[in-house]
Amino acid sequence: MATRLPSVDAVLVGFGWTGAIMGQQFCDAGLNVVALERGVWRDTPTEFAPTFAQDELRYMWRHHLFQNVADDTLTIRNNTDQQALPMRRLGSFLLGTGVGSGGAHWNGQIWRFLPSDLKAYSHNLERYGKAAVTANDMTVQDYPVSWEELEPHYDTFEKLCGTSGKAGNLNGKIQDGGNPFEGPRSAEYPNPPLAWPASPAMFAEAAKKLGYKPFPHPTGNVSKAYVNPLGMQLGECTYCGFCEKFGCGNYSKASPQTTILPYLMAKKNFTLRTECEVLKVETTSDGKHATGVTYVNSAGEEFFQPADMVILSAYILHNVRLMLLSNIGKPYDPKTGEGVVGKNYAYQTMGSVNVFYKDKIMNPFIGAGALASVIDEFNGDNFDHSGLGFIGGGYIASMTTGGRPIEMIYTPDGTPKWGMEWKKAAAQNYLRSSLISCHGSVMAHRGNYLDLDPTYRDSLGRPMLRMTFDFTDNERKMSAYMVDKAAEVGLAMDGASGIKKNYRKGSWNVVPYQTTHNTGGAITGDNPKTSVVNKYLQSWDVSNLFVMGAGAFPQNAGYNPTGTLAALAYMAADKIKSDYLKNPGPLVQA
Amino acid sequence: MARMNRIAAVVGLATIGLAGAGVASLALSQGRINASSTAPGVATPTQLLTQPIPDGAPNIDQIRQGQYLVKMGDCVSCHTRDGGEPLAGGYGLNTPFGVIYTENLTSDPDTGIGAWTPDQFYQAIHSGIGPHGMRLYPGLPYTYFTRATRTDSDAMLAYLKTVPAVSYRPPANGLPFPLNIRFMIRGWNLLFFRPGDFKPEPAKSAEWNRGAYIVTGLGHCGACHTPKNALAGDKTGVPLHGGDLDNWVAPDLTSNMRTGLGRWSSDDIVEYLKTGRNAHANAGGSMGEVVSYSTSLMNDADLHAIATYLKDQPASPSAAAYDPDPGAMKRGAAIYSDACASCHLQEGGGQPRIFPPLKDDAVAQQGDPNGLLHLILAGGRTAPTPTRPTPLSMPSFAWKLTDQQIADVATYIRNAWGNRASAVTAGQATKMRARLGLKTVHLTDNSGDHG
Amino acid sequence: MSDNGINRRRLLVAGALTGAAGAAGAVTLHDGERGADPRTYSGTMPWRGGAADAPPIAEGGTGYTFFNALEQAFLEPALDRLIPPDPAGPSATQANVHIFIDRQLAGPYGRGDHYFLGGPWPKGVAEQGYQSRLSPAQVYRLTIPAIEGHVRGAYNGKLFKDLAVEDQDKVLKSLESGDAKLDSADGKMFFTMFLQNAMEGYFSDPIYGGNKDMGAWKMIGFPGAHYDYREWVGRHNERVPYPPVSIKGRPGWSET
Q1: Which of residues 386-415 of A touch C (CB under 8 A)?
Q2: Do C205 and A456 touch (CB under 8 A)?
Q3: CA–CA separation, A569 vs A245, rounded Å?
Q4: ipTM
Q5: A517 a catalytic residue
Q6: What is the pLDDT of residues B200-235, one digit of tens each?
Q7: The domain containing residue B405 runs over which residues?
Q8: CATH for B356
Q9: CA A344/CA A301 separation, integer angstroms
Q10: B232 occurs within a structural domain
Q11: Number of independent structural domains in chain B
């Protein structure tokens, strides 16, 4: 059976962004920390090198850095009337694995939520009435965290990453060139924005003509050489166009590898074990205290790692599944609405507009993960939703992440997918088109949730996670509204000869890539009856268990999640260091 | 770096011993290019050397000074084997004739230096004679350490006696006859070793003299940076003109504008030694270990002293002008533009302190291209230091470029943007590839999609 | 960093799958991708000079290693209907897309190393995506004969390669729409995979056997494996003059 290892102060389950953040915070506080990562070691010169990183087939289509679904996948369905079937191939989202995980192959989009996003229930209730927040069986909740509490932690993460951008609201004073809708910031971004290639520049011009206030996308693709507060160095982004789904070869994308690991790995009180998959969080017989974790390594050996604190810092789908497999917290039941673990799973509503030009050269291959001009007029509650039939929103951006040709050749409406007509359209439009993205929220819905699958098991014999999810009319109406707004800007772009609108229609489909922004299932709240963790990401049921990541989001906002989940992690780390270590136990009384 | 000195010294001995046997060419062994993790629970050299000395001992000041001098002497680089405790010795130097192993310097009385007296320790570093009167292999750079003062020697021993005892006996040296006869060393010593104390230059400043004491003494910079004669003795007439270190080069440290430190200010030198990087260069390879385990842990005053001394070294002679083959330059420019410029920039300017500039770069322009070839083939890693922990690394090009392409791009780098150095041949790249064991791809744990 | 570690976890996968597939009376080729050994890291960032997660470059020249003669006879004309020749750029076979697919199916992709192929296998709805028990290699192996059987029935015993191009297009369109009813094979699923693989072979780096001479990149104006556009990011509406480059270089790297 499992070999018992010497006890540690904290064990980290998963070693991506939040694992690295918590490891650094804990080791600096003198704790002995062990991190367990189910994938392999990865670092810039050996796994993300510019000698081979720019390989669309290997990384995007052969999933070289992603979770291998042959080992472990989940089952999916749109509603409880369907039988959930395995996601047999990655598609809609591209799950990470390995050291750094998604933090190594993300785009580097570093957003803060709006202050009103944190109060999605009470804010919308007050402005639009009860029906607005309960239509479509919505189960929207407030965060138990205020903007003022979270702001310093956003700032910490932005400085860690060398985030490049332009403030729009410095201590309440609106700044030219930034996002005027953002919550008040305590500091400017640590680096200036990236330069814009043609499409974002033209989008910004068009948006201004229409009366909007475009601003540069805040990004962890750093615009100039930077030394972060831990002494880590980042290089200048080269606009190579191989950011999302790829590791960065020249140290210019913020990742655990570039911003934390060299500092953390040098610590005597830190140990990392790779190819180790955690099977279960073990608890005392009353189920109220975690004693450690049981894991199996790739050699098939089983270990019990005792720990005073267990930090679930894997991806949200794994964190939620581990809680369910460990019988921690009451599983959510969509019929009764009772239970919490797996509740309020949400996603992102992605729409877009392609813009075509007769003779403008856009050079789409000049790109970076978060290289865009953005308007935020239609995000969150930045606009009046009265009579629109939905709440929420998103940002509209001319994104130039790259021009990888297998994925990113856009052709006008009505072009066939193959044959001579397709070929001519591809040759004509590759350099002469661009994309406007609509990156929208997904509100929590009673029928969207996570639980364990009754039929399918993974390679280790454990039940797979089952995802039940679909978009509702709230999201479809929002998408239609946003795409139409984006199309107006597209048509106003200098030299635009045509557009193609891509609405988010129909049911959620696992095949086309949309975004890896899965949220919820381990949501934060101020009441154990309606949430899994308190504001410090501490389990209501097991007070020495902390659950990191976007699983804490009660619903998903119109922004990318990493900035907010990192800020929540820093806030939890601060509270653990200041209070919990002195007096272990619940940090919030139920 | 000190390790390389040992190799050179052993090769020199071999030459003495075996010249008559007709051994003309000597395959050179490879230094450690790994920076592998230490075993769990074992302190890293940096962790050991930065461990505060607790109050209490009556000679606390002497112990603290000794810890500092052990950093200055970079003892851990050679006296630590892969995965072993720092200073416990057992690092094996592979030579064509066998392996020699470094001694255990921890306080263990049986296997380490726990039972050594100050006299014995001083005799070892000052005269190259071990505690039982045996002559030590000159891998221990006593030709430099001889200048260390008795006070410093005593302090080093006092510190080493506080290093937790590790019972570990390095394997017996596997040198075959006649190299196993330590008596042989006497002849080498007669030729190349002049025991003696450090003699200050009264005409120079105190800072200059402090620098000279470090550079020519415990710092033993010349062990690598001074050219060697055929018998691996220092060519004392050309101090710090740059040395060949089998698979690396130790660059010229004189004021030569191309190959030396002519373009570096004193502050540049200090920054490099302290952080492992400056506006001109990043420290990697053997020098990376020196920076990580020695210079980055030294105090600013000593680093300034080193800089003052080095900046006062007269320039080495410049190499003759050279016109490279236009075809090689054209191919090299194409490769450089596609494969190198994203970090080092089209005009060779690099990103200072991150990716070193190649225009005016000294390593690129050394007479011996082996350092450049080593970097292109195996990649290189900037020394992590307390103030700059990021081990910024160059990837390996061994799998990507042919030997001809490596030669062409090296020739280009050595002659573009005003650089000037001899052309590199495919044969030189082939030879270095073989020495580094890079004829086949060294995949990583992530390489699951092969086959 | 072992180059040849065996991952027992993945062996377990293979065993479980074989069992499940056997019970259902079908064959699965899935044998798992090689994994890595468990490791412990402490004290420093690990690094080894010369180590690289280098790409799995396609070997073996331009001969077939996976496809048999019957499959080849379908593959080449079908590919050239998906991507026909014209002066602007090469056809699929001119770009060696057939060789690309051959090498892909002979390797980890063809084996389904990144597919979950365990059962049970209900059909599901379109939103649930790929629900076959077959690896990509098996999909090609089973479907091409079924397509030829369908063509023989509809076109007087002819093979696909002997049809007029208009008829070839009709067959491909009927596969794409799902209208073609094949014996014991899913034509629509095959076509989706085939078109995707064709685009992959046409536009991916030449190291994988297709995109010969970077012809597809030249056609659209993609510079390939360049890694730095700082000089060009602010120069709008200008053609970037770099010739396309592969991960393994371009002619300028070697020409005398």
Answers
A1: 403, 405-406, 409
A2: no
A3: 24
A4: 0.96
A5: yes
A6: 999 999 999 999 999 999 999 998 999 988 777 888
A7: 326-435
A8: 1.10.760.10
A9: 36
A10: no
A11: 2
